Amino acid sequence: MAGIFGFMSSRSGRNAEQVVDHIARLLCHTSYCKVDNRAGDQCGLGVVHLGLLHDVEQPLVDEKTGIRFVLDGEAHDPDQIKARLIAQGVSISEMTSEPELFLKLFLLEGPEGFADISGSWAFAAHDERKGEFVIVTDRWGSRQVVYAAIPGGFAFFPEVKGVLAFPEFGCTIDPVAIADLIHFQHVFGNRTTIEGVSLVPPASALRWRDGRIEIQEYWRLSFPESFSVRTTGEWLEEYKPLLARAMDHAVRKPPGAGSTLSGGMDTRIMMAGIPHEHRSIHTYTFGERGCRDLKYARMVAGVLGTRHHELEIKPALFLEHLDAYNWFTDCMVSPRHCQIGALLPLIRKHSPVVLEGIPTGSLSFYMYPVPGFDVLAPSSEEEFLRHHVFGRREAIVKSLLPERLFHDPYIDAMREDPQPGYRESLGSGFPAFAPQRAWRTSITERLRRFSGTGGSFMRTQVEVRQPLSDYDLVTCMFEAPPSHYVDSGCVHELIHRLAPDLDHIPHHGTGMPANPSLLQTFWSWRRRQLKSRLSRWTGGRYRFRDERATIVTTDWLRGALKQKLTSTLLSKRVADRGIMNAGEVKRIVNDHMNGNDDYFSIIWTLMGIELWCRRFFDGEEAGE
Fold it and tell me: C-alpha angle 300/303/306, rounded to 5°?
């Protein structure tokens, strides 16, 4: 993954240049990656990047203080930094690079000066004279940085595997992380799969000096306790110019950007918000033949006039990218979303930068459904946890007892009820509105630790911008009265105001346009009813494809991916590893293969754990 790295170690047994080279080999996943670094006396600092955003060589060095500085990412609007520096008497020229702007602002105002610098970035400063590192992340933690106290020092990287450059550290799997992965498909909080390796929290500054680590927040996610009385239309009129500004920055800023485009609403909001003169950008959609994403994205592209590209995902193409994606994620998410890797060569061919619709800034348009909750009613703590923790977990594990799947010490972690990382992410007390607490978890956990993984993986070949995460856009979203987003009418109204020609195009989740006629509603209901009856009449032997799903890998595991599944999970190595109960794994695989039960999610997670162990602990290369 593109990102910053550094270390201070007096016990590595090697010189710093050798350690830097080892780290670079671990982090450079493609031939597009470049490494800028500086190795000193038992220390190093560097950045892995694609050479697309900045042409200045890093690390930068401040002549007065001797501080060395590296930046990964960019600000949405660097002119904001320039204006602030000029106002304080700092000399800025047209040739001043973005990393230089970040360094000057850091020296002038410290980490607190970045509270309102919207963008996707992380940076590190190393004061070798003081023996100090400072690492600062953006509000959403969109550029991952992990850190560890290693014997004789400190180290940080964009990926957990960077710690393999320090054999003296000694890597042990964190059982709680594995429990999170099984129950929720991703790890929570700032935990990673390796004990002693943690993520730098979002909106935080980490300072390491003299063996001590201090972490300080410079901004905290919060919701208003009261809302102004505004109509939906009034609020949308406030939201529209903020969206237009965010999209204008994203497409105008060099290098030129293309965009992912799905059949959903997040990328549709982005496309509708792009200024008319820039809508001829390249757009990209992937999916299995027959899915709504391909069909509806094609319709959106046709209306807006983008240069559209489609990629059909087949099992062989999916399998081609499985190992690389799983290795990249450090076993912190399920590998079943690796299809994004197939799209990257197509994007790289046309667009050095791609817009990605991670929905931080459109989240309040959707009431993430929570059965039993009224969006406007406070909920008790017991009821909230019952729905959010137990309901979501049971949706993944179903009738399975996860503790039967593992050996000690993982069994104790599986029995934690509810999982501590998830409960901590949900918080307590205000906000009492269930959706607001759910959104907080979605932003800090789901988007940062799960949905954001695809965008991070894309950075192995192209740069990624996420304009819906613009700070002002998200702030405006938080200030919307909850009554505006009881249903999806608000997002349809926004798109209508931005691009009314898109009104007739259905949404991939429902298959219906924004305002369907009675006839459309009737035929949609009738089709679902007929499909259900046909499936029952044939005893389930005839099943219709779920058009809402981009790809359907459930049956692939019983067919095209069967060999990969069995060679991974039914091998003797699973039993020898001492993590999973090989007998229970075999039962799950057989029950899924025979159609006795659907263990789709669990099987993908178990495969991810074993494939990752083979590379992380056994030293295998991809495909072995």
Answer: 75
